[in-house]
Design a protein that fits this description.
Length: 297
Amino acid sequence: MSPHETLFRLESTPTPQHLIVDTNRLSQFELIDFPGDWDEASNNPIFLGLSCFVFVLDAQDEPYDLVLSYLTNLISKATKVNPLIHVHVFINKVDGELFLSEEAKYDCRRDIVSLVQEEMETFQGLDNVNVEYYLTSIYDHSVYESFSKVVQKLVPALNTIESLLNVLVERNGMEKAFLFDVASKLYISTDSNPVDAAGYELCSDMIDVVLDVSGIYGGRHNSESNREIEDGQKGEGEGGEQDKSVTEEEKNGYYDSESCAAIHLSNGIVLYLKEVESMLALVCLTREESFGRRGLV
């Protein structure tokens, strides 16, 4: 669904909705979507079992006084029953005429952070609560990048994976490496080098390219299956019996554990994708002169 279609095709959330995410061994969690005006949330023991609490704020809906007061109250309730909970605030809709410049976006973020801190000072026990803020929009990759950072809080082996990616980047002379959940295009982990928004967007878009091209041309079973079908039709005509069972791997044979791709850009950067396991892929940015070491991946 394209971003503009969400304006009239997606309805508001009337009641809490549960979604189980289980695409690979590193992306396994439960998502609960609460309505923005659900008053019961402040008194619900659901916070007791949460690892992360994400609050989505409409940056175009000023003034922010009431919504930030509601947010601070939720933070107070959540941290009382679950002191280890991670709190994230998505400042959404930073697009359109109100946010044409980066300066306008960061001014909005600064004002919201300041107001939340003032509100938190009126509550006891919130001095040490760490709240992380993200600027997001449905018209770019900022939502994916922000949710990636939230999901990373749920990965127990995050530090180990990051260390392995650091070694990979250093030994192969790479610019950047991401470990992506292919289904959602969220990156589970990355090396310790700063994340460049443009580089992340290239890697994320590469996944779409590889899936689309693989779906059209990459069916490794296609030619064999066509021959088998022809032979089977002949055999059946002669009274022979054919095994019609098809494995799940054959159904999805165009994208599997052996999938890989490379895209050479005009600026000398190469994008390289290698499937690690089901719905988990390593996507790297490397220079042309270092691309020869890709066999180490």
